[in-house]
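User: I'm writing a tutorial on reading structure tokens. Could you give me a worked example: one chain, its sequence, then its tokens, then a sentence or two explaining what the tokens reveal?
Assistant: Sure. Here is the example chain.
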Amino acid sequence: MNKWLLSSALLLAIAGTAQAAGDAAAGKTRSAPCAGCHNPDGNSVNPQWPKLAGQHASYIMKQLRDFKAGARKDPLMTAQAAPLTETDIQNLAAYFSGQKTKPAQATDAALAKKGEMLFRGGDTKRGVTACAACHGPTGMGNPQAKFPRLANQHATYIEKALKDFRSGARANDAGQMMRNIAARMSDDEIAAVAQYIQGLQP
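And here are its predicted structure tokens:
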């Protein structure tokens, strides 16, 4: 009896994991409205809009849920996320996370060099944690912790995200981690880190 219960529990856990993984084919079909900003394969052309291709499914799901719940606000995304079901969210995440990220446009080498120091080492005197501590040395993030992949992301989008965290316009970061870090960064530092991230090759 105990073995049967254990087997059943294991099957349910596997089924739950499979459901959470989503259906990429269904996600591709459901992604048609997303293509206007993010492109059909998730590699947005407009640098103001983030690339979704290759982003961790766990992170995409969190952001879509936050937009839907109002924990993260954006006029375009709030409207897009409102009608999404949980299945839609899982399927979209499965589709975009499975796409290949295309290299970003060229970076400002001098600025990126300054950004690299902050990305890799932070500034302990001012309490600016190194980006690599959470997002990894190559910017690939941490899907278990829902820390996003940053490598090859548009610098313009990274700048906006950091400034939104700094101002409090964006407040869906766990434990205010990003708000606390961004609050100690200058515009020049944000621009430099963004340029470095844009050029990161995983």
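What the tokens reveal: Residues 138 and 202 are 5 Å apart (CA to CA). The radius of gyration is 18 Å.
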